[in-house]
Amino acid sequence: MKQLIIAMLFLLTLPLLAGEWTEYYFKFQINDKSELQTLTQVISIANVKDKTVWAFANDDEWAAFQRLGYTAELLPNPSSQAEVTMRGSGENAKLWDSYPTYDAYVAQMYAFQTNYPALCQIIDAGTTVNGRKILFAKISDNVATHEAEPEVMYTSTIHGNETCGYVLMLRLIDYLLSNYNTDTRVQNLVNNLEIWINPNANPDGTYYGGNSSVSGARRYNANGIDLNRSFPDVWGGATQTHQIENTIMENLANAHHFVISANFHGGTEVVNYPWDGTTTRHIDNNWFIDISSDYVNTARQVNASYMTALYPSGITNGSDWYIVYGGRQDWMNYNKQCREVTIELSTSYILSASQLPAYWNYNYNSFLGYLENALYGLQGTVKDAYGNPLAATVNIIGHDDEHSKATTDPACGDYIRMLLPGTYTVQVSAAGYEPQTFNNVVITDGQKTTLNVVFGQIIPTQEISLTAGWNLISLNVEPSDLSVGSVLSGIGSSVLQIKNATQTYAPAVASYFNTLSSINLTDGYWINLSAPATLTVTGTAVDPLSRSINLQTGWNLISYLPENALSVSSALASVSSYLQEVRSITQIYIPGGGSNTLTTMTPGQGYWIKVSQPCTLTYPAFGK
């Protein structure tokens, strides 16, 4: 058994509302990276460089780790090493070279909502083990309305002692709100996205030593559990006990449709992309490399040596660094198809407060650029023929798997599929409909390609309001059953008689007197009712060009087939040379007459038309 070497010991043993436990921070050597797959299920690995591993553990984990026989060096707890400058709730909230007390944090979040009510809402997503709030700032131009636009999310400090992102997210909220009226880049983001920002996902860890300081911050939550090892694991690895903070994040993700997100950490500097729990590459591996590199390269325009602590590129596949089970990144990508990365912002866990402004300068353009990914790629809506949003799946043929396909937001029917530039075949599927396939869909870098999809067809319906007594009507929708009884079934109890120019039907008389058995769509009809009613006919829209009406010399009782109202002269232009007179039930039109009361022909009405000789009436196509 290897000997445990204690080089330096600084263990925090402050009491918790949820119980007492010790946090161990240590490093040790491994012989081969394959050992990490077992170790990650025993302790909380925080960093691996070459064959050196840095990790955290609670009491049970430490005991289990000791049984594995590694020689470990206990290290000072990171919260004991930082320069911590605090500001209270009564101080200037824009002292960005300080950390807020817990009360100052809550006050600052709600002040954003108070100061920018049209742009910001504070969402209390839930309460931690020790009763602190997990707060989100929701930012959008119409913040009170859920719109058909991508939802994006930033969260930080799921490890309570990784606090750089905590202050930077507060500053980002302030930056978006205070610059909205003057900065076109900010306006573009706020106007076209729904932005959710959670500065602190583990306030119990950050304020483990009390609400007045982050100097006692710990990695784990109040129960001594690593919240980034306790999400439901998708790879079959052992995870820590699921916590209320995990449930809060899962409930929020399930209630919304986040399409891209980032989880901000500290302890090194690198952008970590999926997967964490398997060496298999994500279907969109090259896309993740591209956006991760963009983040790093943008930051390096300010500090050329930034994010070089682990890899020259500043990026890594998660499993290439070390395996993680129960992490949020894989849960979001695998279960919610939300493109999430993990961004390690600083080599210090608790960054010295005086350095916070510098790290803002390194990162803020990258923060904006990462969100802008949600403005590009393939986007659109999927709806039915009546404009109702559909739950649908967008599949890139020959590329996607079950966990990379985009889905629509059922509330609005909008979707986004972020892709590298190229030409793709896209299949869109919705329950109850045949899938639709679109070939040669071109994606261009830094641009949005719009593809709106409609499933089904509107079933034409004609509604004709009828009064008690006689009405003169016609149909321009063809039902599947043209029998008089079927057409009039909805108003049958009110019908006294219906007739055209030569036939009649009256429900109350013997059947052998009834000569009208079915409706002819080119005829007009008199219908007599005992009470007002609405005749509703559903079927197929009639194309006027396919239903010419043969007219005889003299009077003809005809239907009006166009879907729109037209002037009499436009509607009857095809017979204008022979037209002598037109009558509705109450109005009259005579060509060249100076006192015509009938000027417009409308759907649902029947008309008497008098012509000088036999001719054929053809209405304009679809009322045009």
Description of the molecule:
By secondary structure, this protein is of the alpha+beta class. Helix 4 (164-178) crosses helix 11 (356-372) and helix 8 (285-300) packs antiparallel against helix 11. The longest helix is centred in the middle third of the chain and has 17 residues, at 356-372. It is elongated, with a radius of gyration of 36 Å.
Strands, helices and their partners?
Blueprint: E1 24-29, H1 36-39, E2 44-49, E3 52-57, H2 59-66, E4 72-74, E5 86-87, E6 99-100, H3 102-115, E7 120-127, E8 133-139, E9 151-156, H4 164-178, H5 184-192, E10 194-198, H6 203-206, H7 244-255, E11 258-265, E12 270-273, H8 285-300, E13 315-317, H9 318-321, H10 328-336, E14 339-344, H11 356-372, E15 377-384, E16 392-396, E17 406-407, E18 414-417, E19 422-430, E20 436-443, E21 448-450, E22 453-455, E23 461-466, E24 469-473, E25 477-478, H12 484-487, E26 495-499, E27 504-505, E28 525-529, E29 533-538, E30 540-541, E31 549-551, E32 554-558, E33 566-567, H13 568-571, E34 579-583, E35 588-589, E36 600-601, E37 607-611, E38 615-617
Parallel strand pairs: 5-6, 9-10, 9-11, 11-14, 12-13, 15-21, 15-22
Antiparallel strand pairs: 1-3, 1-4, 2-3, 7-8, 8-10, 12-14, 15-18, 16-17, 16-19, 19-20, 23-29, 24-28, 25-30, 26-27, 26-28, 31-38, 32-37, 33-36, 34-35, 34-37
Helix pairs in contact: 4-11, 8-11
Short description:
The chain has 13 helices and 38 strands. It starts with 23 loop residues before the first strand and ends in a 7-residue tail after the last strand.
Number of strands: 38
Could you state the oligomeric state of the chains shown?
single chain
**Largest sheet properties:** 8 strands, mixed
Can you tell me the residue ranges where pLDDT is under 50 for at least 5 consecutive residues?
A: 1-17
Give me the number of helical elements. 13
